[in-house]
UniProtKB/TrEMBL annotation:
<dbReference type="InterPro" id="IPR007065">
    <property type="entry name" value="HPP"/>
</dbReference>
<feature type="transmembrane region" description="Helical">
    <location>
        <begin position="152"/>
        <end position="171"/>
    </location>
</feature>
<protein>
    <submittedName>
        <fullName>HPP family protein</fullName>
    </submittedName>
</protein>
<keyword id="KW-1133">Transmembrane helix</keyword>
<feature type="transmembrane region" description="Helical">
    <location>
        <begin position="39"/>
        <end position="57"/>
    </location>
</feature>
<feature type="transmembrane region" description="Helical">
    <location>
        <begin position="64"/>
        <end position="84"/>
    </location>
</feature>
<feature type="transmembrane region" description="Helical">
    <location>
        <begin position="113"/>
        <end position="132"/>
    </location>
</feature>
<dbReference type="InterPro" id="IPR058581">
    <property type="entry name" value="TM_HPP"/>
</dbReference>
<keyword id="KW-0812">Transmembrane</keyword>
<feature type="domain" description="HPP transmembrane region">
    <location>
        <begin position="33"/>
        <end position="181"/>
    </location>
</feature>
<dbReference type="Pfam" id="PF04982">
    <property type="entry name" value="TM_HPP"/>
</dbReference>
<keyword id="KW-0472">Membrane</keyword>
């Protein structure tokens, strides 16, 4: 009987492991607030931005839209004052991560290991350059799996990010209580 007790004790979770798991329970309820004007601004801003990029695509027969731009719109309009939503982060984050994806694709190919490494390098580089923009983390995946050429860096990546910032400047500053951006560099 003593052996069974000792074996059960040795298999019991350690206090450090229990402490680690307790961090995952959260700290309460969401601090996010719902405001009708913010919802409408975000709806209009996202709509105008994506429609503008799609219209440019149809007029020029070049690609102006990529999936990560939808997520950028979420930040640019619903979290417009967050550091990760500022022009430096939108433009720099999209360009840097796309450049990393492009280099990894053209130097090493498109294996799963390269995609994973490219995303990791993109995150680290955004942090080092203070251009962290979460939607841009998808760009290496988009570029490597799509096997895009170097011109993809200019359109849609760089020009598309500039268009998003331009429209966000206009839409966000129409509201008297918003001043976008909170910083440029």
């Amino acid at each position: 009987m003593k052996e069974i007790y000792e074996e059960a004790q040795s298999q019991a979770p350690t206090p450090a492991f229990i402490n680690y798991l307790s961090k995952m329970k959260g700290q309460g309820q969401s601090p996010l607030k719902v405001n009708t004007k913010d919802i409408l601004t975000s709806l209009i801003g996202g709509f105008i931005t994506i429609i503008s990029l799609l219209l440019l695509t149809s007029i020029t027969s070049s690609t102006w839209l990529m999936a990560s731009f939808g997520a950028t719109c979420v930040l640019a309009y619903s979290a417009w004052n967050a550091p990760l939503s500022q022009p430096r982060n939108i433009i720099g984050g999209h360009f840097i991560t796309s450049l990393i994806g492009m280099c990894m694709l053209h130097w090493f190919g498109n294996s799963p290991w390269i995609i994973g490494l490219a995303v990791g390098l993109a995150i680290a580089t955004m942090m080092l350059t203070k251009t962290t923009h979460p939607p841009a983390g998808a760009n290496p995946i988009i570029i490597i799996t799509g096997n895009y050429g170097w011109d993809f860096l200019w359109s849609p990546v760089l020009i598309g990010a500039l268009i998003i910032v331009l429209i966000a400047l206009i839409i966000n500053n129409l509201r008297h209580n918003r001043a976008y951006p909170t910083f440029w560099y």
